[in-house]
Design a protein that fits this description.
Blueprint (H helix, E strand, L loop, with lengths): L5 E6 L5 H13 L3 E6 L9 H8 L10 H6 L2 H7 L2 E7 L1 H9 L5 H8 L3 E6 L3 H5 L1 H12 L3 E2 L3 E4 L5 E5 L3 H12 L8 E6 L4 E4 L2 E3 L6 H12 L3 E6 L11 E4 L3 H10 L5 E4 L6 E3 L19 E3 L3 H6 L8 E8 L3 H12 L3 E6 L11 E2 L1 E5 L2 E4 L3 E2 H16 L1
Parallel strand pairs: 1-2, 1-3, 3-4, 4-5, 8-11, 8-13, 11-12, 13-16, 16-17
Antiparallel strand pairs: 6-7, 9-10, 14-15, 17-19, 18-21, 19-20
Bound molecules: cytidine-5'-triphosphate.
The site of cytidine-5'-triphosphate has 14 residues, from helix 12 and strand 16.
């Protein structure tokens, strides 16, 4: 799939640099040509010799190397590739990129390039969570830089949390998507998916039967068309896709915050089955059967994420797509919902138990827009996703 693609791989100085060696091998197995650039800090983790042997290429390290400048200047090096991949992207490299610094070869290439850039951040969890890094991340995403990972897990430094570099297959999938010559190349699309869990107490919650299958399929279909997808998901049964930014949330409030933190999007698809209410008097400790009668739950309304984004006065995505899960008068209810929430399209489906749609692998939807209602034949959720992604691409082209 990557045959004849040329990737400039910048290896930063982090413990995850060892994974970059495997990344080079896998990329070459797929037919890609890899030119490595090793930062000064990167040399502390992998040797130029191993990178050179695995890539069968010269490894570039210095900005001021007259021989290289005579052979291939840094401007040319930054533009000869189809894609620049930074793996691992350290906090320092991200800060340099966000600030537009050009004080070594890697940062100069990143500033001089006219090609797409994909970064795979890797750092200690506190460094990742630091407002400065999060600010830099938002700046980079705003600049159109693609991001894969980081993942959550045990870290080499002994801590636990987000900061682990994405695994090699995830980086390759992100490279594939970045190089896909799709109609959504360079477009940022936000997708919400799955149910939300609204706590009653620390061990109990209110949920719904959404599996996340349709939202996940839509996110994958959009990425397959080249979109840079941010996938905000509640606790779903279906695992989230690999090749995109995945934000896991529990509650509707967290989902809203994640959507608002995702940055400007060209389109947004709200496929999540968000709980309409949360328990206002949710306790910090487990409710006990203490003989004082049945517990009384007070409900409060959750924020409507779809309506909030649809009605944004500044930075509203060009296309906002909602879903309507209905059991009666599907088209009439969904048409009213579109007007009430002020989204552009509603994908309406009949979730009456006899349809077997909720939790099943097929879907029969009606697309409702300002132009009216268009019913699609019953098809697999993957086919619905592919059709919808294609329509989104046409609408925001
Ligand atoms: N939605 C949302 N935030 C909420 C509730 C719903 O973003 N708090 C979104 C869903 O992701 C979906 C659309 O709104 O895209 C419709 O959700 P649905 O639950 O079917 O509609 P409701 O607004 O809850 O209306 P009703 O309960 O009357 O069906």
């Amino acid at each position: 799939m990557l045959a004849d693609k040329h990737i400039l791989l910048i290896v930063g100085g982090g413990i995850a640099a060892f994974k970059s060696l495997d990344l080079v091998r896998r990329l070459r197995e797929q037919g890609a040509q890899v030119t490595p650039v090793l930062t000064k800090a990167g040399v502390e983790f992998v040797t130029p010799l191993s990178l050179s042997a695995l890539s069968a290429s010269k490894v570039y390290q210095d900005l001021f190397n007259l021989t290289d400048e005579a052979e291939m200047g840094h401007i040319e090096l930054s533009r000869a590739a189809d894609l620049i991949v930074v793996a691992p992207a350290t906090a320092d490299l991200m800060a340099k990129m966000a600030g537009g610094l050009a004080n070594d070869l890697a940062s100069t290439l990143l500033l001089a390039t006219d090609k797409r850039v994909l970064i795979a951040p890797s750092m200690n969890v506190r460094m990742w969570d630091h407002p400065a890094t999060q600010r830099n991340l938002a700046t980079l995403q705003g600049d159109g830089i693609l991001v894969v990972g980081p993942n959550e897990g045990d870290m080499a430094c002994g801590e636990y949390g987000p900061g682990r570099m994405a695994e090699v297959p995830e980086i390759i999938a992100a490279i594939d998507a970045a190089l896909a010559d799709g109609p959504l190349n360079g477009r940022h699309v936000l997708v919400t998916s799955g149910p939300t869990h609204e706590p009653i107490d620390p061990v109990r919650y209110i949920a719904n039967r959404s599996s996340g299958a349709q939202g996940t399929a839509i996110a994958k279909a959009l990425a397959a068309l080249g979109a840079d997808v941010t996938f905000v998901t509640g606790p779903a049964d279906v695992p989230p896709p690999m090749d995109m930014t995945v934000v896991k949330v529990q509650t509707a409030q967290e989902m809203l915050e994640a959507v608002q933190a995702a940055g400007a999007a060209d389109a947004a698809v709200f496929a999540a089955a968000v709980a309409d209410w949360h328990v206002a008097n949710a306790g910090d400790s487990k409710i006990k059967k203490d003989g004082s009668g049945l517990p009384k739950l007070d409900f409060a309304e959750n924020p409507d994420i779809l309506a909030t984004v649809s009605q944004m006065s500044k930075g509203r995505p060009k296309l906002v797509v909602g879903f309507a899960a209905e059991t009666d008068d599907v088209i009439a209810n969904a048409t009213a919902k579109r007007l009430r929430k002020q989204c552009d399209w509603i994908v309406a489906n009949d979730v009456s138990p006899e349809t077997g749609i909720m939790g099943g692998s097929e879907n029969a939807v009606t697309l409702i827009s300002a132009d009216g209602a268009e019913s699609w034949p019953r098809m697999s959720k993957d086919a619905v996703a592919a059709t919808l992604a294609q329509r989104i691409a046409e609408a925001i082209a």
